Amino acid sequence: MSEMxxxxxxxxxxxxTNPALKEAIEAMQAEGSKENIDNMIxxxxxxxxxxxxxxxxxxxxxxxxxxxxxxxxxxxQFRLLENNRKEKFFGVFxxxxxxxxxxxxxxxxxxxxxxxxxxxxxMDPKSGVLGFVVNPFGKSVTFPKNxxxxxxxxxxxxxxxxxxxxxxxxxxxxxxxxxxxxMMAALINxxxxxxxxxxxxxxxxxxxxxxxxxxxxxxxxxxQEVFESISxxxxxxxxxxxxxxxxxxxxxxxxxxxxxxxxxxxxxxxEE
Length: 272
Description:
With 272 residues, the protein is α+β, with helices and mostly antiparallel strands. Helices cover 30% and strands 33% of the residues.
């Protein structure tokens, strides 16, 4: 069992069916074209899933101004799948029928959740989980941790108000005429205190005439929080002439932009 927090849904588990997702999985398994794979991933992102769980209420107390207040804390434990290499995965299900293929879950409490919540749990370093499997006892699809991180980061990035790619903008990539040594030193110092950051790359990007330092970051964690902290560190070194743009390394544009470029920061083993 794995004990974690999960964002639940008020929709009853019995009403979760996901026929479009099941059709997309079958189509992808019949023909693994890019179109079918992308469609299946999109359906996973849109879906609601069922997780079998054991939910218990644990009494707790807090004292304020000499008064003791009793309440209950909810503890949720999830049953995990384990392969022959002892690697653990969450099993998530498209409907009740698929859930009941996993013996021993007939009496389990059922938590209804979605991709973002599952991704958050997979990305939690305390979970020890290496991904999740949709319908593990039927026509299954495995989402390894690296793929979950990539999808989650891209979703979060595209929802950010000030992301780098602007629709219709003319984009040019290049190298800085003069490298911002002071800014890079400050960022290296910052990254050394952030265990979720694995590497960072620097290029220049120009969009419709506006120059920006373009930082590509390979990381695990909350995209908004990681980028906001980078902005705070870089802010004193920016001006109207040169701004700052960032993108997760998990995005195809970012990977292509830094192909063949050495990172200016890479996490050392002793920073693990």
